[in-house]
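Repro:
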Amino acid sequence: MTYKWENSANPSFDLFAFLSENFPGIELGGGLFYRWPLGIRFKIGLKAVPERPVALFEAAFAREEICILIEQEWPAVGASNLGVSQKYPLFSLPGAFDFSPEFSCDQADVQCQESEEVGIDRFTLRWTRFHSRSFGYGDVFQAIGNTDHARTPSLSSRVYFVNPRTGVMLHMYDDRGLDVICWRRQPLVELYAQFHDWVLEYDREQIMSALGLGSGQ
């Protein structure tokens, strides 16, 4: 998969270099679990938001670790087709962030060649660094869960949480579930061991095979 990166000079975190090195060829988008060979798909459910995604986040990010928070948003011309009117961009989400006046995030316009998602092959990425407990990640998960249910607040964009130390990338696609991928097995094996009861049964066999786990685990 080929990207055309624009307007990304001197970023505070080189997201594109990170993706190229750790997830070569990946296309950010829905169904992240199916876009990379090593991953876990967890079932959530609206009644378990934000408790389950918060537990998964806190297991994937130690208290003092850095989280790279990424927003993927589409042009206004496509927004009505995505049903995202009257919803918040990530970094404007009420209550989730306590920004200093000096806050800024990196931004890049992206064109994805040969995209599987017709009509949304151009989007904007915004990203910045946080200490993992310094922002309202529970509020972000709640807004994601609200998005398909006409609840407020909700989000107009996809959100990815990246641990640059372990290589874990986490994406809650809606209230139904959350994907975690990584370029190596061990962090995923540890998550599986801790939260195996939450793994989506439909994909369990594929997950266990990819992670080298026996049927008894």
